[in-house]
Design goal:
alpha/beta
């Protein structure tokens, strides 16, 4: 199973909507983890319509860390359901509640990353909403436990300018790791005005998906707007579903290659 990290440069939003859309259409049990270091509580206030998470989330995880308790054993207990359906199970780990908590969480990332990877090892995939890429990149502990990292960007010149500044920081971080991690682009608003081919060639990164520009449908996820009829079968949700399948396939193939190398022969 997989750990996928999604992030974006400043001025190119869409990470949380993309991460949530993927979690709601993911083919297996999945946990969406809000690891944005600029807290906004956008999922709780938007899609979950102000739901009280009862103190669950990263604040509770930090408390476990301070008490030197096993985060992995209690992780799911500090999550909330994304949907009422149990199959597949879709859970959400709320993010930081206060901006001042971010610095205090620096010592917790490693244990949280180990817990997320452990959850993936037990059959629940993990999608990490890492939010904006900072000047120092993303938490290295999260990247070390990720199987793939997606950079979400709009296709406007403004969005691409931000991605040009910050995507190389993440690429440099990944190159420091002992094993290769997949890095790709998720485009929001294809051909507005640049195409996936132009962007992929410019950045030297594969394009994993082109998501349509659909503010009305996206508002259901970002702002908790009322769902239109047949929302789950609309084109945007189908694009999220296809993206999840594509990323899962890429990760499975990479993991098969790694297992084959351990056995001393290439994967066919």
């Amino acid at each position: 199973m997989a750990v996928l990290v999604l992030a974006a440069g400043p001025g190119s939003p869409g990470v949380t909507t993309t991460a949530l859309g993927m979690a709601l259409t993911w083919p297996h049990d999945v946990l969406l983890a809000d690891c944005d270091r600029e807290p906004s509580q956008s999922v709780q206030a938007g899609y979950l319509r102000g739901m009280d998470h009862g103190g669950r989330g990263l604040a509770a995880i930090a408390r476990l860390h301070r008490e030197d308790r096993d985060i992995g054993a209690d992780l799911l207990r500090h999550t909330v359901p994304l949907t009422a359906d149990d199959t597949p199970r879709r859970r959400y780990l709320p993010g930081l509640a206060q901006p001042a908590s971010v610095r205090l969480f620096d010592l917790v990332w490693a244990d949280l990353a180990d817990a997320l990877a452990g959850l993936a090892g037990r059959g629940t995939d993990v999608i990490v909403d890492a939010g904006r890429i900072g000047r120092d990149g993303l938490p290295m502990d999260l990247l070390a436990r990720a199987d793939a990292v997606g950079i979400v960007t709009r296709t406007s010149l403004r969005g691409l300018a931000a991605t040009r500044l910050y995507a190389p920081i993440v690429a440099d971080q990944l190159r420091q790791l002992p094993t290769e991690r997949q890095l790709g682009l998720v485009l929001v608003g294809a051909n507005r005005p640049y195409s996936s081919g132009e962007i992929s060639a410019q950045f030297g990164l594969p394009c994993w998906a082109e998501l349509e520009w659909s503010p009305t449908l996206a508002a259901v996820l970002s702002d908790g707007a009322d769902e239109p009829r047949r929302f789950t079968s609309r084109s945007l949700m189908n694009q999220f579903r296809a993206l999840g399948l594509r990323v899962a396939e890429r990760i499975e193939h990479q993991q098969a290659d790694e297992r084959a190398l351990v056995r001393g022969r290439p994967n066919a």
